[in-house]
Amino acid sequence: MLLSRFQHELIEAGCDEAGRGCLAGPVFAAAVILPPDFEHELLNDSKQLSEETRYALRAEIEQNAIAFAVASVDNIEIDEINILNASFLAMHRAIAKLHLQPQLLLIDGNRFNKHQTIPHQCIVGGDGKYFSIAAASILAKTYRDDYMKQIALHHPEYEWHSNKGYPTIKHRKTILQIGYTPYHRRTFRVTSLDTEQEVVAV
Q1: Residue 9, annotated ligand binder?
Q2: In this structure, is residue 170 part of a structural domain?
Q3: Cys bridge to 38: 34, 141, 153, 173, which one at CB 3.0-4.6 A?
């Protein structure tokens, strides 16, 4: 069971990103402030849930959250500042959009660039430990998926409607055959068609 709070004195916001390991499209991030006693038996790391469950939970999160915001950093910016900094920037943008300023940020992962004067706590695997981070992971993932489905209409050959820009064999093969689109991250190198290939940022 996930936890509702990291502490009980400050207003805390969970933050997470989606799309860090993709070859195309933006990285999205979300920040979510939930009620202190919020619980949900299905809410978990978005990667552990089906697409149908993610979208159902998104509606519940948006209805019940005290505040939430979603932001992105596009592929051009990713190439300029690298994907790690772009992930942090997307979180910063989401935090800045919240109508209520949090007093503590719960960050999924082990690194973060400090956001102005708000203290933060990095939590490895946080999207499987705290409801607010899990909620942020679901919003970031579903909003990014919506965006990728939209741009897939203009470039159907890359199958972004299903792979969402991740480095599937079909996606990599299409890049090697016909090249990049304006949505591709040019600093992410496609080196092979091996099933287990990891994305290499250059």
Answers
A1: no
A2: no
A3: 34
Check residue 129 and give its pLDDT.
Answer: 96
- pTM of the predicted model as reported, rounded to 2 decimal places: 0.93
Whether 167 is covered by a domain: the verdict is no
pLDDT of residue 196: 45
Q: Is residue 45 part of an annotated ligand binding site?
A: no
Residue 202 lies in a domain: no
In a domain, 175, yes or no: no
Q: What span, in angstroms and rounded, lies between the C-alpha atoms of 118 and 102?
A: 7
CA distances to 8, 16, 152, 194 from 105, in Å: 13, 10, 34, 38
Q: What are the per-10-residue average pLDDT scores of the chain (202 residues)?
A: 94 98 97 95 88 96 98 98 98 98 97 94 96 97 98 97 95 94 92 55 40
